[in-house]
Every structure is written in structure tokens, then in C-alpha cells.
Amino acid sequence: MASSTNLRLCVLFIFFAVGCVCMQDEQLHNHHGPLFTFGDSLVDTGNNNYINTRRIAQANYPPYGQTFFKYPSGRWSDGRVLPDFFAEYADLPWILPYLHPGNKRYVYGTNFASGGAGALHETNQGLVMSLKTQARNFKKVERILRKQLGRTGVNTILSKGVYLIWIGTNDYSVYASDSKLFSSYSLEKYVDLVIGNLSSVIEEIHKKGGRKFVVINLWSPNHIPLVQEEAVASQGRDARLGQLNHLVELHNGQLYKELQRLTTKLKGFRYSYADSYKVVEEIASNPAKYGFKDVKVACCGSGKLRGIQSCGGQDTLKEYQLCENPKEHLFFDSNHGSDKGYQILAEMIWNGDLNTSRPINVKSLFQS
Ligand SMILES: *[C@@H]1O[C@H](CO)[C@@H](O)[C@H](O)[C@H]1NC(C)=O
Ligand SMILES: *[C@@H]1O[C@H](CO)[C@@H](O)[C@H](O)[C@H]1NC(C)=O
């Protein structure tokens, strides 16, 4: 009696286990590969809600999220950010942030990004998850997937996966404000460190089976309300804007060169270099064409350009202004895009021509 129950349970279990594996396989064949995201507040979908950043890098209070989710999800936007749009275009379900307690399955990918993070471990150290920490978390996920799917299964998934990386802004703003740690470094040498660390994370992901990378370059500081507000306030006496511009130019040039170098070095390595610098330049010169009324003034914050970071009034600055229609603004707060802004950026690099994504666009990379 007992043994026949055991047998039945066992058969049921085998049936269930096989059923699960087949179903997962089938689901994956119907979709593009998973999406794994690494980076800072430009792509964080809520990881910082679960770590103690001492409030310097959180967006889990109103009016963040007001347009799309109708609640503050932890994204620095009135709605979605770039990986949300890519997941949608790739027919993937919503992808949870890595630290979300409900995140147990990783077959569609996950998001490791952390607001305030840099490619250098020292950038906002102790408050955020640096790129290094994000790579360590990716390896944890790889081990979990390996247990669930076996060696062949995990290799298939990870090689079909797309790895989205957008990082560097915080490294450069730390350097340009007060870089006690790296003050002896020239701009060129500092950029080498940032690119070197970014590149070694790409190599680590490649070692675990990752092949397809979307790497986004940095926006021009000339279009960021936060930077412009400071430049206006200092009436040009501050050398910060010039320095930031130089750093971003060096970074973007080096980044592209590094991707070309990796192509010759790493087996099966493919990439799309997404030129967000050019896209923002294009939008800023033709706002009406993209449906924007204002590309200079942010929707939420204080100061002339709402470039002072006070959106939501959670920090020392309680007073802030909020626009009526975030859709009309490229920037939602002092240094982050609006839902609409990110949507246009996402479309332009998903379907991009050689001006915006080289050598292939994000769509072709997903499909390849
Ligand atoms: C990465 O950055 C660290 C400082 O955080 C530096 O010591 C190291 O040399 C960098 N690595 C590369 C490969 O550039
Ligand atoms: C790049 O953009 C310019 C101006 O918008 C356009 O004329 C040109 O055809 C584009 N180049 C490619 C390779 O798509």
C-alpha cells in the first residue's frame, strides 16, 4: 500500500518534472532570449528599494511612477525605463529587479542595475551595487539556472541572452566634483579605468556564455538639466561642464574602440553600440518632431531648469515644482528621462540605422 502510493507519487513527480522542463523549453522557443540589465539609475527598475542607500539613490516615492505604473516603482522616471521597452519589443514578460523578493525564475532575465552605481567599485561605495557587485550577482543567477536547467540548458539560454549595459555617468560626476581617490589621475587615465572595468565585466559575462551585448554610450552633459543648472548658476566660472564634456567624449570614443577590440578577442562576441549621445542630440535639435514642448527644462525639480535634484521633496529640499504633462518633457527630473523620452530613445536604438546603433541595431541583435 505504502509502496504503491510512493510509486504513484514518484510517477506523478517525474511527469511533473518532465512537464515543467518541456514547458520551459517551449516557452523559450517562442520568445527571444532573456534580457539581463546592468547599470545605474538610467536602467534600475527598483533594486535600490531593497538596499540601504541612505536615501541618496532611491526613487520609491511620488511623483516617480505617476504616469505609467501609477505608483513609485523605484524607477527614476514618471513611467518606464529603457529595459522595460526592450522587454516589450522582444515579447518578453515584465522583468523583475534582481533584489525583488518575488524574483525566483530567471529564464527571461533579470535586472542587476543600481541607481548611483559606477563601473568603478569606489563610486558611491557602500551605498549602491557597483558593476562588480552586479557581475557577482549575475554569476549567482547563472549557478541557479545551471541547477534548474542543466549545463546544456543554461548554455542555450545564456548564449541567446542579451546583456544591456549602461554605466559611467556616476563615475564621471564623482571625478568632476571631488575625486579625492583618483585626483592624481589624468582624464585619459581615469577613462581608461572606467572602460577597463566595464570591459572586464563583459569578459566575465562572456566566460559564462553571454554573447550578445547592447552597450549604451553617455549623453552629452550639454543637454542634462542638472549640469546646465549648475553652469548657469556659476555663470561659466566653473570648469566642470568643460571637464564633463571632455570625459564623456573620451568615454564614448574609447567604449566603441573597446567593443571592436573585444570582437577580435572573444569567441562569438556580438554587440550593438547604442549611440544615445546622438539620439539626444537629434531630439534636442528637433523637439517638435518628437512631440516634445521642452527638452531643456525637466518636469520635476527646482531651479530655473528644474535641474536641482529635489523631485519628490524627500531630501533636504522639500519644495519642488512638477509639470502638468510629463510627456512634453524629455527629462522627468534633473538628470533622468521621462517615460516618453525613454520610449523614443528605445525605439530609435531598437530599430536604429547606423547613426544610432552600430554595427547592428538592438532588434537584429535579439533576433540573431
Ligand atoms: C578597475 O578599477 C580599479 C579601481 O576601482 C583599478 O584599480 C583597476 O585597475 C581597474 N581595472 C581595469 C582593468 O582597468
Ligand atoms: C544618418 O542620418 C543622416 C541625417 O539624419 C541621414 O541622412 C543618413 O542617411 C543616416 N545614415 C545612415 C547610415 O543611416
From TrEMBL:
GO terms for molecular function: lipase activity. InterPro entries: GDSL, GLIP1-5/GLL25, SGNH_hydro_sf, SGNH_plant_lipase-like. Residues 1-22 form the signal peptide. It comes from the Eukaryota. Pfam families: Lipase_GDSL. Keywords: Signal. Belongs to the 'GDSL' lipolytic enzyme family. PANTHER family: GDSL-LIKE LIPASE/ACYLHYDROLASE, GDSL-LIKE LIPASE_ACYLHYDROLASE. This is GDSL esterase/lipase 1-like. It comes from Cucurbita maxima. The lineage of its organism: Eukaryota, Viridiplantae, Streptophyta, Embryophyta, Tracheophyta. The gene is LOC111479956.
